[in-house]
Amino acid sequence: MPRRRQPTARQVRLGIELRKLREAAGLKAREAAALLGADSVQMSQIEAGIAGVSEERVRRLAAQYNCADPGLVDGLVAMATDRTRGWWEEYRGALPDSFLDLSELEYHATYRWDMDFLFIPGPLQIEDYARALFADRVPALPERDLDLRVRHRMQRRQTIEGPTAVPYVAIIHEAALRIRACDRVASRKQLARVLELSEADHITVRIVPLDLDSFASAGATMVYAGGTVSKLDTVVRDAPHGTVFIDAEAQLGTFRAHFHKVEARSLEQGPSRDLIHKLAKEL
Prior knowledge:
There is one protein chain. The chain has a six-stranded mixed beta sheet, with helices on both faces. The chain contains twelve helices and six strands. Helix 4 (55-64) packs antiparallel against helix 5 (70-81) and helix 7 crosses helix 8. A hairpin with an 8-residue loop joins strand 4 (222-225) and strand 5. By secondary structure, the chain is an alpha/beta fold. It has helices at 9-24, 29-35, 40-47, 55-64, 70-81, 97-108, 127-135, 143-155, 174-178, 184-198, 249-266, 272-282; strands at 112-116, 168-173, 203-208, 222-225, 234-239, 242-246.
């Protein structure tokens, strides 16, 4: 297969998972390459996501690596053979690659969890709210770039809306609901939107109130995207140097445990909808 100039995060993840299996089997890259009739350079390119790999080769490697998880193998095959050119491709070259990688991750996710303490999570945002966040960037974005980011974020809402929507849980701190990223009118519309979406059967919104005692988890914001098997889950976090995609199994387990811990704390309080209604009336 031809080499890719710029692999997507999904293509890179496939290579990472194949490398993990190889290393767990105690094989060197040149030994794995020999199984495919290739050389170590080609194997390195596959494991870097630079070169594609066929279903037959993925299954052959998995067998040689003694992978006993058929769900994982099927998931890797799906990653290797999927040729979807999703709606996000229209933004390629116009938005940073991390925006497109996140959209692709969401498209393939089997479920999604969000935890945010300062802002309303992206899938729940209205246009005015999203625009206010992007407009606050330093240095300021040109108007065209601002419009592109807002339009892209609005399209990302299909993750939890429409025929392809997946189960969604959002844990939001009361502080995020109180901070007026936009004006009073738009803030009221934003709260109404959260309430509206929370009524859907596949959407759960939990609110962590300001007066909750002994709560020190405000630094644990995350997007958690479920894979076809738990080993293919992904955590996405924003960092000073950009968006980070986390796939290490131990780290995924830590983030899962942390999410459930905060979720349990939010359940100690009354119904979240009551708190959102209260805040909306105060605006």
